[in-house]
Specification:
Blueprint (H helix, E strand, L loop, with lengths): L11 H17 L11 H9 L5 H14 L1 H11 L5 H25 L5 H19 L2 H6 L5 H22 L7 H31 L3 H30 L1
Helix pairs in contact: 1-10, 3-9, 4-6, 4-9, 5-8, 5-9, 6-8, 6-10
């Protein structure tokens, strides 16, 4: 069913405000370690390690993906209206290509950007996808953006954001490329695990009448979460 047929039910604003409050509460209690950042313990391990450490970096990559709620919110939005495994595989592959490309490029070249700005753009990727699911671009501008291109482009930003964080850790050159490849393998494993769980849950939900009835509310909450992520990063930029 097309996303253009979903309608705004009552209580959406209240649900969106609740989602925003929960996200702000997470930030307030120090959930930053779960976000696009790398946790402090992992940061210390990366900084102190040298040589080829294949399995530890596979683990770190998988952990980064399954605990990175900005990645998961974006991918949740991407697959929300995808029903065929062929389509899901295509979009997830595009995101993985973008993420891997800029992560490797950024670390190997030493090119980085302000982490707050990159993470704010990543928050905007969540907003973009939620609005796309709501059919906003067709309603407002009469056009439908190329969803495949958008997924690839935002994959570039997600990967570049991680590269920026890794560069801050001054990772050792010894074993750098094998470790980065291992990290990427871990990211893909984590992505498959996270998406597998999401798809199983959504598979049950899609069989119920509540799926389309609540589609508008869920994507509104997703959009709100994206705006909260943007605001959080911009506040950090202003305070830095």
């Amino acid at each position: 069913m097309s996303f253009r047929s979903i309608a705004p039910p009552g209580g959406v604003l209240r649900a969106a405000l609740l989602a925003a409050s929960l996200l702000l509460l997470c930030f307030a209690i120090g959930a930053e370690a779960w976000a696009h950042n790398v946790a402090e313990g992992d940061k210390g391990y990366i900084q102190e390690s040298s040589g080829i450490l294949f399995w530890p970096f596979v683990y770190l990559g998988a952990k980064h993906m399954v605990t990175g709620y900005d990645h998961l919110l974006f991918l949740f939005g991407v697959i929300f209206f995808l029903y065929r495994m062929k389509d899901i595989g295509l979009y997830v592959t595009l995101f993985a290509i973008g993420h891997s490309t800029t992560m490797l490029f950024g670390v190997l070249t030493g090119i980085s950007a302000n982490a707050y700005i990159i993470d704010a753009i990543i928050g905007l990727s969540v907003v973009y996808k939620a609005l796309d699911n709501l059919g906003a671009y067709q309603r407002w501008f009469g056009v439908q953006p190329n969803t495949k291109a958008a997924t690839l482009i935002f994959g570039f930003f997600h990967g570049f954001g991680l590269a920026t964080k890794i560069l801050e850790f001054e990772i050792a050159n010894e074993g750098l490329i094998p470790n980065l490849l291992a990290f990427n393998i871990g990211v893909e494993i984590g992505q498959l695990l996270a998406l597998g769980t999401i798809l199983i849950l959504m598979g049950f939900w899609r069989r119920t009448p509540s799926f389309m009835r609540h589609a508008f509310a869920v994507n509104t909450i997703l959009m709100t979460a994206g705006f909260v992520l943007v605001g959080y990063q911009l506040a950090g930029l202003a305070a830095a």
